[in-house]
Amino acid sequence: MATLLRIDSSISGEASFSRRLTAAFAHSWAEAGGEVVTRDLHAEQIPHLPHPGLHFPHREGVPEDSPGRALQDELIEEALAADAFVIGAPLYNYSVPSTLRAWTDYLHVPGRTAGTPASAGPLAGRPVVLLSTRGAAYDQPGQEELLDHAVPALRALLGSALGMDVEAITVDRTLAEVIPALDRERASALFADALDRASARGRELAASLL
Ligand SMILES: Cc1cc2nc3c(=O)[nH]c(=O)nc-3n(C[C@H](O)[C@H](O)[C@H](O)COP(=O)(O)O)c2cc1C
Fold first, then answer.
1. Beta partners for 180?
2. Any idea what the CATH number is for the domain that residue 100 is in?
3. Rounded to an integer, what distance in angstroms lies between the CA atom of residue 116 and that of residue 25?
4. H or E element, residue 40
5. Alpha carbon of 206 to those of 8, 42, 59, 159, 210: distances in Å?
6. pLDDT for residue 118
7. Which 3 state secondary structure label does DSSP give 172?
8. What is the C-alpha separation between 207 and 210, in angstroms, rounded?
9. What is the CB < 6 Å shell around ligand 1?
10. Residue 115 Cα to ligand 1 middle (Å)
11. Is 10 assigned a ligand-binding role in the annotation?
């Protein structure tokens, strides 16, 4: 049975758009017979990485009793046990929520989770679907490059450093309910389309891995 690791990071609870997308994706996955493991980085927050030595496989200088060691092992083992990932990645202040950023700091260890020039890392080739939600509109040329550092940063880390197979579904204008200029009707059509795409992708990916 293939395992999906579902990661959420939105602070908005049931009103969250990204959580609705990850839920739809995971629902399709489970319906196809896959197992889903959920990590909610907002409900169960992890501390910032406490020591620079945790970025390296030998953990030089990290006290033996540092709680960061056990937490990092737990997060890495959980990731290594997953066949695929779906990550709810809301855009907060031009980047990912700090809770999600903290998770990446524990996960990225060159020579442990990331490969070396000589060999690929253990996560290489694993699929990861980013479900990114943004409050504003990004229709003007150059706007996205200037103002969205969430998906690009995750692509660099998960794709370039860890070698994972990264794809993203992004939906804009989620703040249309509070900012009428964003056009409620258009926003709700965009979100409905993203929900359909997330469900379909969960189903397809599960079918290819189960
Ligand atoms: C702390 C915070 C910062 C935000 N920063 C941005 C931003 O930089 N750009 C943007 O387009 N929307 C921003 N928004 C709006 C969110 O991207 C939007 O509400 C989105 O739906 C968040 O995903 P969620 O609904 O899953 O929480 C921000 C929202 C919050 C709560």
1. none
2. 3.40.50.360
3. 32
4. strand 35-40
5. 19, 26, 36, 20, 6
6. 85
7. coil
8. 6
9. 10, 12, 16-19, 90-94, 133-136, 174-175
10. 33
11. yes
Q: How remote is the CA of residue 203 from the centroid of ligand 1, in Å?
A: 27
- pLDDT at residue 135 in the model: 98
Tell me the Cα Rg of the chain: 18
Of all protein residues, the one whose alpha carbon is nearest to atom 30 of ligand 1 is 92
Q: How far is the CA of 36 from the centre of ligand 1 (A)?
A: 26
- Please list the helix, strand and coil fractions of the chain in percent, rounded to the nearest 5, in that order: 45, 20, 35
Among all chains, which residue has been given the structure tokens 């509070």? 178
- Ligand 1 centroid to residue 136 C-alpha, Å: 8
Name the token pair of 126: 């694993």
Mutate to test the pocket of ligand 1, among 20, 174, 179, 195 (most ligand atoms within 8 A of CB): 174
Supply 70's token pair. Answer: 């056990």
Structure tokens given for 21: 């997308």
Identify the pLDDT of residue 117. Answer: 84
Which pLDDT score is estimated for 1?
A: 81
Q: How many domains does the chain have?
A: 1
Reported as type and span, the H/E element at residue 52 is none
Domain that holds residue 154: 3-209
Q: Which two tokens stand for residue 20?
A: 């609705």
Residue among 40, 134, 184 whose CB has most ligand 1 atoms within 8 A, to mutate: 134
Q: What is the mean pLDDT of each run of 10 residues along the chain (210 residues)?
A: 96 97 98 97 98 97 96 98 98 98 98 92 97 97 94 97 98 96 97 98 94
